[in-house]
Amino acid sequence: MSDPVLEVESLSISFGTTRHRSTVVHEVSFAVERGEIVGVVGESGSGKTLTAMGASDLLPAGAHRDAAKWVFDGTDLLGADHRQRSGALGGKLAVVFQDPMSSLNPTRRVGNQLSDTARFWGKQSKPQARANAVEQLRRVRIAAPERRVSSYPHELSGGMRQRAMIAMGMMSTPSLIIADEPTTALDVTVQADVMELFRELNETEGTAIVLVSHNIALISEICHRVLVMYAGRIVEEVSGADLAHSARHPYTRALIGSVPSLDSDLDSELISIPGTPPDPSRLPPGCSFADRCPLVTDRCRTDRPELANGVACWEVD
Ligand SMILES: Nc1ncnc2c1ncn2[C@@H]1O[C@H](COP(=O)(O)OP(=O)(O)OP(=O)(O)O)[C@@H](O)[C@H]1O
Ligand SMILES: [Mg+2]
């Protein structure tokens, strides 16, 4: 039975004033089931980050959200004000970004920053929170955690900082982690460690994860389900197991084709597909991928295919 931790329907994100509004994320709908790992892939500018931010109440200033439904862990966030939303999300939603330095406070010891989360959201006492911080650092495999709790962020390596961020997210036992390119800034072996850590948290704690990444091979390996975004829309939804060999949308197939070898080259970033995606705020009338698509027909240039049975394309079903 479906038991989503996050449910979003018809989420659109736009910038500008009412008169000059440009919409960059268009009516995106998805759910994340408890314990599920959902990947989000797509070229740069396709709306992955804004979708993740829109769902986690972290939109940048000037961004406007529209949605028909937005429910997190049983709480309707659509009708809630900012305070109610942060009450519902605080401690239950952990967000991990590409650059942990921007999220960690450089002037405070790592352990204190971790403890704050547990004291505030988990209502833990100071000694409890400190013990919890050591425990979480140990769990993300930071060596000598009793010593490292007293370190400042700049005293840690990039990989350690990213793991400290994940440990901070785990302090309050979240139901969902949203990770946006969490390993892009790290070297390859550390990337693999961080991914292994996500998988372990998912398996042992049942934590649901939304993982945004350019790395298709990694996504297909770790994710139960994958959302493929193009020009601000979800154009395909496919299981992680089917991504490499049974994806149907010509765009998804092109993305996979752009990875030199999915089986052998697990760390490769995708290289580009010929042509460029349209500006998501100025989309052509039909399918946004029409100009680059090998299967394009006249209909594709006039009528936009909706996402139906997992794929938004007139030519495949
Ligand atoms: N603050 C902003 N103001 C105006 N437009 C924005 C803003 N942030 C993002 N956009 C636009 O919204 C679109 C989607 O951006 P988003 O950052 O979500 O893409 P992305 O898929 O995460 O790309 P990347 O892979 O490069 O991180 C892009 O066209 C981008 O130019
Ligand atoms: Mg992004």
Distinctive features:
single chain, 317 residues, alpha/beta, 6-stranded mixed sheet, 5-stranded antiparallel sheet, 11 helices, 11 strands, globular, binds adenosine-5'-triphosphate, binds magnesium ion
Task: Briefly note the CATH topology name of the domain at 4-92 and 174-302.
Answer: Rossmann fold
Poorly predicted runs? none
Strand count, sense and barrel status of the largest sheet are: 6 strands, mixed
Rg value: 20 Å
Mean pLDDT across the residues is 89
Morphology: globular
> Helix and strand succession?
EEEHEEEHEHHHHEHEHEEHHH
Helix fraction, binned, reads 25-40%
Please summarize what this structure is.
The chain contains eleven helices and eleven strands. It has helices at 48-55, 82-89, 110-120, 126-139, 145-148, 158-170, 188-205, 216-222, 240-246, 250-257, 298-302, and strands at residues 4-16, 21-33, 37-41, 63-66, 69-72, 75-76, 93-96, 176-180, 208-212, 225-230, 233-239. The strands form two sheets. A six-stranded mixed beta sheet has the order 7-8-9-3-10-11, with helices on both faces. Strands 1, 2, 4, 5 and 6 form a five-stranded antiparallel beta sheet that branches.
What does the secondary structure layout of this molecule look like, with pairings?
Layout: E1 4-16, E2 21-33, E3 37-41, H1 48-55, E4 63-66, E5 69-72, E6 75-76, H2 82-89, E7 93-96, H3 110-120, H4 126-139, H5 145-148, H6 158-170, E8 176-180, H7 188-205, E9 208-212, H8 216-222, E10 225-230, E11 233-239, H9 240-246, H10 250-257, H11 298-302
Parallel strand pairs: 3-9, 3-10, 7-8, 8-9
Antiparallel strand pairs: 1-2, 1-4, 1-5, 5-6, 10-11
Bound molecules: adenosine-5'-triphosphate and magnesium ion.
